[in-house]
Amino acid sequence: MKIKAVIFDMDGTVVDTTQLEYIAWKRMFDEQNVDFSYDEYIQVLGAKGAEIVKGKLHKEESFIEDLLEKKEEYFKELVQQKGLELIPDVEKVLLESRKLQLKLALATGASQEKLDFIMEKFNILHYFDAVVTADNVKNGKPDPEVFLRASEKLQVAPEECLALEDASNGVEAAQKANMACIAITSTRGRDQLEKADLIIDRYQDLSLKEFLLQQVMEK
Questions:
Q1: Which domain range does residue 116 map to?
Q2: Whether residue 136 is found in the same domain as residue 171
Q3: pTM of structure
Q4: Contact predicate 6/104, CB 8 Å
Q5: Which residue among 82, 107, 136 closes a domain?
Q6: Res. 219 pLDDT band, cuts 50 70 90
Q7: How far apart are CA 41 and CA 20, in angstroms?
Q8: Which of 17, 87, 112, 201 has the fewest CB within 10 Å, making it most exposed?
Q9: Euclidean distance between the first and final Cα of the chain, in Å?
Q10: Average per-residue pLDDT in the chain?
Q11: How far apart are CA 189 and CA 175, in angstroms?
């Protein structure tokens, strides 16, 4: 099956948010006297924020929304203090995708508000033909809903899409959506991403053209 579209995760795959995100989450949970280790955070990467809070606190919906707003405030403060960077060479992959005439989507477990805040800092949103956020789906990763919604928006069959991910939940979601997946080790080790079709340490080493040719030959 020929790949016609590439669907990117955002946090840890396009933008290097992992450390600042964790600090914001930990501060919010510390205020609730709840432990939240870095290992726990890594395990839930890709999930919707509400799902992460519900997993730790048994509170009513309105309280959870308040906590999420607080966590986003902390994240924004940290970004203003420390700045934010793209994952090195991700724009090389975006440009190559365009040269190969592939459609592009961004499929994230982040809210639309957070995506807007981050994308104000980088001139890359124009690369994407479609965007799907946590606001557009009921279930977060590892549920495949966000990827399936992205393929629907692109009007490309799921099996004709390639997902780019950095987290095991994202790789599992891509697999459940029947999509090929390339995983980058920006947040997880290779042993945590082994279900991906290809694992890379740097975008600099990735040739999409070669990967797509290999996919065609293997089918």
A1: 5-16+85-218
A2: yes
A3: 0.93
A4: yes
A5: 82
A6: low
A7: 12
A8: 201
A9: 6
A10: 94
A11: 18
